[in-house]
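Dear all,

This email documents one entry for the complex benchmark we are building for the journal club exercise. For each entry we list the sequence lines for every component of the assembly. Then comes the predicted three-dimensional structure of the complex as a token string, followed by one or two observations. Please use this as the template for your own entries, and keep the labels exactly as they appear.
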Amino acid sequence: MDSDSLPPAPRPPSRGASTRQSRQRGLSQAAIIDAALDIIDREGLDALTMRTVAHALGTGPASLYAHVGSKEQLIELVVERVIGEVHFIGEPDPARWEEQLKETAHEMRRVFASHGDLARASFGRIPVGENAMRGAESMMAVLRAGGLSDRVTALAVDLLSLYVMGIAYEDGLARGTEPEQFVDFIAELRSYFESLPADRFPNFVSLAEQLTSGDENTRFEFGLEVLIRGLEAVSKNEA
Amino acid sequence: MDSDSLPPAPRPPSRGASTRQSRQRGLSQAAIIDAALDIIDREGLDALTMRTVAHALGTGPASLYAHVGSKEQLIELVVERVIGEVHFIGEPDPARWEEQLKETAHEMRRVFASHGDLARASFGRIPVGENAMRGAESMMAVLRAGGLSDRVTALAVDLLSLYVMGIAYEDGLARGTEPEQFVDFIAELRSYFESLPADRFPNFVSLAEQLTSGDENTRFEFGLEVLIRGLEAVSKNEA
DNA sequence: ACCTGAACACCGTTCAAGT
DNA sequence: ACCTGAACACCGTTCAAGT
């Protein structure tokens, strides 16, 4: 997974301070990231606290600040680490760019789905870590191999990431509530839609089933299909 | 803006408690929502605190709980109120469904852009308030007028909302930092991309300008175009 | 019924002091 | 250089007590 390190990336304004390194004297940045990710996996993002992380490592919260600039930066590091778990396309195939893009999207969703509601914290960040950069590089390679212009490629990588992380964000929220409770809520929602006054809400009434029946996978698949077909259309139009 | 009230909507699992009404004895739910929105507009979502809201109204935080179940619910009420500012399409025109969808998307973005980073709190919520429902109803009417199937309409209203709110979320983050700082960061980012090792990051290097030049409006417009062209394609395919 | 002060159980972060 | 305890300046929410 490792490779030659990159020059230092610019940091987005007003995020945490810079990182210091420790040379394995009990605590280390890696151990802190591990502990943080473990908490997110098992108890979700809200349970992630400088205090809970410290506790898991047998210290107090103040000790973490020798290895991590802030809680904000710790989350950034966790996200970057998790992006490292995503398998991006290594060899772009011009004939299969749509499939390869879908594969990548599925991979990203799968990985974030395996880490609680971490996607919530990841959303809206401009990721400049090594793993995130490699991922974007791979997506751009696939898009260009598919014949998309420079302009469309640059916009598309952004759009696709927004979509996938948005879905992952919502996935995480749904996972935050008990599955049974969630099913109940959807059922309640359906009968609520059906009970609406038909003169003012004709579409809610007649689409009540459609609106509450699709599972999250078909929603995801649909959006992906729309985006890729849309990219094809926009790209064709440009030429 | 008001109309006959709807039957009580189901509440998503594990959000705030139910609302009590006060009859204008100094404090009221409306006044609390006003104060909260005002704080968000001027200082952003992070400045919204039960304490800051209470302070703006000349009381202590405990007093708010007679009118609002929780902070979570207060935010929900603020979001619902803000959605009320969006002008949705009243008369769907079958010949102009794409334009009408774009108009609605622009309206939503415009309204949320005028309320700090509120979109961040709105994202991922299933909105069941009256205003939100009317908005979704209007979008579905436009989609169906455009000839989209029930299935595609139901999925599309969801997809479009996800996109617009995702963009609005990012808008809000960008607005959180000083404009000058943000420009500097983008410039830094560009030279960082350009300085990357070309053997491992050929696309970042050659697309450095494209990746850092588009302003937020062109990004938004591009995604909207892709989505709508994609919906056309998917819809044609279905028939 | 509404409002309040005080308190509870938390936060992230700093800082002087230790090694 | 790293680690720590204690403290600072906050949170959301509860609850007994007031009117």
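Observations: Chain B touches chain A through 75 residues (CB under 8 Å). Chain B has two domains: 29-83, 94-238.
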